[in-house]
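Researcher: I'm preparing a figure for a lab meeting and need a structural model of a single chain. I don't have an experimental structure, so a prediction will have to do for now. The sequence is pasted below. Please return the structure as tokens so I can convert it later.
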Amino acid sequence: MSVAQKGQSKPLGSVGMNAKSTKKTPLRISHFGNQQVVLETEDYDRFVRSQPEIVRACQHHESMMSSVMSVQKSIDSLINQIKAWCAGQPRVARCVLIPRADDVMIAVVATDEDPGGTLHGKMCDLHMDIFENNDSFQLYFVLFRASESDGVSAFGDSQSHRVIYSADNAGTRKQSKE
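Model: Understood. Here is the structure written out token by token.
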């Protein structure tokens, strides 16, 4: 009677190898293989899969990771573009990225009341540039005048807000306290 038949768990090896084997020869799983493989997690979940299923799962994982890296790179690029734009605008006090249920909002807080709407116009130009050159996802921009700056916290969960630019931290300008 085997150990498994007695109701005791034993490590399931890989196609004839004990799981604790020190052999340096890797286990070969082939798309053309027809043998079933048992995968056991550290919490003792077990999965029985065919070799082609395992190969497809690995290919799918690699594809997903490549997509994730691509999206991360796009997000980093967009954030850097927004940071650079903010740093070039002397009337931007801070910029906050706000993830929400259905979108991502960028709150631009002005150092003043934006007389004449020039900062708002420049922000709209940035938004249109991002809209035209990015087909992966969209951001929504809102300008808060200095007197409205406390209103940023009303959008989304303030615990998830991310300040992506602050004139206070840029070392060149001080944030207006109106």
